[in-house]
Design goal:
Layout lengths: L5 H23 L51 H18 L5 E8 L5 E4 L5 E2 L4 H16 L4 H12 L3 H10 L2 H12 L16 E2 L1 H11 L8 H11 L20 E11 L2 E12 L2 E12 L2 H21 L1
Antiparallel strand pairs: 1-2, 1-7, 3-4, 5-6, 6-7
């Protein structure tokens, strides 16, 4: 799988530095991965999917359990200072996206401070492989109601999340009852804008950044249909995604980050690229839930750069505040 060039990565470092500078100003003034091929339905083997033996996961951070994280904000999220930071950051994201390619939907929420930054968070996008978190959440919900995972389901879940294996996703999609099963689970999750594809192509399901952050919230809170074991299991796999797929949200992590969780999606579709990244970054004083979804990108790399710039801008600014 092609990845960004050194030049692109250098651009990211520049973006991060700009974000940090912006944060000082803010402080003083107060988004079917079916590989690279067409969508594949349940049970099929899409060309271009990741295949072959799974590489050993290489976690790069400590993974705290959902119970050992900063608590949700206790202050009123409408507090004037919080609102000022959020408004300034939202304006900065809007300004950047006004010159970006394609469409982008963003929602970033800090559970610890209450700061929420959203731009186009209700825009609908095809899911690509970020739907794999929803498939796994559906499976865990069913199994906690009717017994635990089988050994085979555990193997498939690990392959589906840590290396984005499409055959594993198709097998588990079938195991949960396909679109009907996912729809029933999403009703319990409160994902009112996430809809499985009517023809059964899981990667062509649709979602919004707001729904993706809501699902992440259910993985990080005891006020969830998912029990503590289910939440910890899903987050644990999201912390072990293979190194070459740890782009997007992880680019915003810093030396103090104690937990980084991610699931990405990427797909050449309708003459452009769909690139998404959803995840979580935990560090002292912060617990960010992030979803940056994009489509109509001229290349995979362009989409990744957009995602990483937006995530890094907001996280660096809040961190410096």
């Amino acid at each position: 799988m092609a990845r960004r060039s050194g030049t692109s990565r250098a651009r990211l470092y520049t973006f991060t530095a700009v974000a940090a500078t912006f944060a000082v100003v803010v402080g003083s003034s107060f988004g079917v991965q079916l590989g690279r091929a067409a969508a594949a339905g349940p049970g099929s083997a899409p060309s271009g999917a990741e295949t072959g033996p799974a590489a050993s996961p290489t976690p790069t951070t400590v993974t705290p359990s959902p119970e050992h994280v900063p608590p949700p904000a206790t202050s009123d999220p409408d507090d004037a200072a919080v609102s000022t930071v959020a408004d300034n950051l939202t304006g900065a994201v809007q300004a950047y996206l006004s010159g970006a390619d394609g469409r982008v939907g963003v929602l970033i929420v800090d559970r610890a401070t209450g700061i929420r930054v959203g731009v186009g968070e209700d825009r609908s996008f095809i899911t690509a492989s970020v739907v794999k978190v929803d498939i796994l959440a559906t499976l865990m919900l069913r199994r906690q109601d009717h017994g635990g995972l089988t050994d085979r389901e555990d193997d498939l879940a690990r392959a589906m999340i840590t290396r984005s294996d499409n055959d594993a996703a198709s097998a588990l999609w079938t195991a949960v009852g396909g679109g009907t099963g996912v729809t029933a689970a999403n009703q319990r999750f409160g994902l009112s804008h996430t809809h499985p594809d009517q023809d059964g192509y899981w990667g062509l399901s649709t979602t919004t950044a707001a729904d993706q952050v809501r699902l992440l919230g259910l993985l990080t809170s005891s006020n969830s249909p998912l029990n503590a074991h289910s939440r910890s299991y899903i987050l644990g796999l999201m912390s072990q995604v293979e190194r070459d797929q740890r782009w997007g949200v992880p680019a915003a992590a810093g030396p103090a980050s104690t937990g980084v969780y991610v699931k990405n999606g990427w797909l050449a579709y309708n003459g452009g690229w769909v690139t998404h990244s959803v995840g979580r970054i935990v560090e002292p004083g912060h617990d960010w839930l992030l979803a940056v979804l994009s489509d109509g990108q001229p290349s995979e790399g362009t989409g990744i750069d957009t995602i990483e710039h937006v995530a890094s801008l907001v996280v660096a600014a809040e961190r410096a505040h």
